[in-house]
Backbone:
């Protein structure tokens, strides 16, 4: 069990550029979550996958954001035309099992800075 | 909809002193409750969780929390803290109504343990 991994760990970009983040969940975990954490705040839910299906999206996820999990394993989160307000830590979590009793395990996050 | 309130944004304590980090929640449905810890530049690590049963929950690193349904609280306690406990602590709630719950987090409490 290597844990949830996220790449890159840090990303600095200029306003208007596109960025893509990757999350590799714990092997065989079928549920994957994306959260966003801004400075001084707790993480906020963005979206959720069960296998390859995206089952829920937050209103925080504007049309500039898109997430995929094409083969039900790793996931990508893309932000198009980045804005300074997108600067945040983007956290990925995965959960296995069939019930609610299983824990969400978080990755180390990708810290995005938009200049 | 549910919300989580962490009543203290910062809690400074001296080493070996007891500490309590307060968390209140509101929800129209039954919830599961969690405490996560976040060290600088890292993801979230689960300390403990309440799903059902005994209202006193013990977690890692000597932490425990008590679920109080009448007061809608889930305060985190440790009888004697160490310097290494310095970190940000997040209380979170998940809707127990299904297996695909997302977590709603509080804003966090920064625990600073001084020598």
Residues:
């Amino acid at each position: 069990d290597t844990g949830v991994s996220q790449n890159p760990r840090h990303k600095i970009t200029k306003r208007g550029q596109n960025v893509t983040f990757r999350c590799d969940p714990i092997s065989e975990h079928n549920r994957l979550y994306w959260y966003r954490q801004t400075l001084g705040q707790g993480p906020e839910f963005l979206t959720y996958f069960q296998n390859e299906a995206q089952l829920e999206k937050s209103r925080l996820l504007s049309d500039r954001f898109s997430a995929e999990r094409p083969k039900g394993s790793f996931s990508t989160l893309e932000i198009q035309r980045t804005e300074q307000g997108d600067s945040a830590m983007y956290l990925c979590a995965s959960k296995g099992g069939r019930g609610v009793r299983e824990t969400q395990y978080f990755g180390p996050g990708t810290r995005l800075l938009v200049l | 909809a549910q919300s989580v309130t962490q009543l203290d944004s910062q809690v400074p304590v001296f080493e070996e002193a007891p500490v309590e980090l307060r968390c209140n929640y509101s929800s129209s449905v039954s919830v599961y409750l969690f405490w996560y810890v976040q060290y600088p530049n890292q993801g979230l690590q689960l300390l403990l969780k309440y799903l059902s049963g005994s209202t006193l929950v013990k977690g890692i690193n000597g932490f425990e929390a008590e679920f109080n349904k009448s007061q809608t609280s889930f305060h985190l306690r440790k009888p004697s803290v160490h310097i290494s406990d310095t970190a940000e602590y997040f209380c979170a709630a998940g809707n127990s109504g299904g297996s695909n719950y997302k977590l709603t987090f509080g804003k966090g409490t920064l625990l600073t343990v001084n020598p």
The interface with chain A takes residues 4, 6, 32, 36, 41-46, 49, 51, 90, 92, 94, 96, 98-108 of chain B (CB under 8 Å).
